[in-house]
Amino acid sequence: MSTKITTIIFDLGGVLIDWSPEYVYLKEFRGDRKKMDWFLKHICAWDWNVNQDAGYPIEKATQERIALFPEYEDLIKMYYNRWEEMLGFAHNDTVAILKDLVDNPNYRVFALTNWSGETWPKAILKFPWLQWFEGILVSGTEGMRKPFAEIYELMLDRYAIAAEEALFIDDSKANIDGCQAVGIKGIHYTDTKTLAVRLRALGITLDQDKL
Asked: Are residues 37 and 103 in the same domain?
């Protein structure tokens, strides 16, 4: 008989919150997606961004990138100077599932996010429902990030969570593989309706019948 899930942990970006550098750079490149994609692949690349998610100082990272690509100085500075414009909307259908779970006394609900500690306060201001969680672990504040085992182990230890009773929801397959490596069940998020089906299959109660 499988262990009952008592704790549900959500990723934020891509699951509950929309975020994309495209909101800034597609305008700057005048709608030229090919040029924008090249810039985001080679200049302000994803692996550069996730380094700040692990706690690397934004100002230092920005100046180092400008030193490498001085011809792109203005565009590089935009990445964090206009970061709030990259922070889009809440995925309200997934937030509705979150609300059901938070209101259900049978579950403890947390968040575990790869997010710069320097930009995190802006998210708190924009999305008041982030206060619903019993606790949130922010990678940039802790100096570690998903999918590495240490951040999942810190989550379990800090909030006294039993791994075998926990479920983690993330839109990154690598992050799901990471949680499963330390004994936490995982759901690779693709869309809200599929999430609702998979939660119910695990015996988790949802009141949102329309999902």
From this structure: no
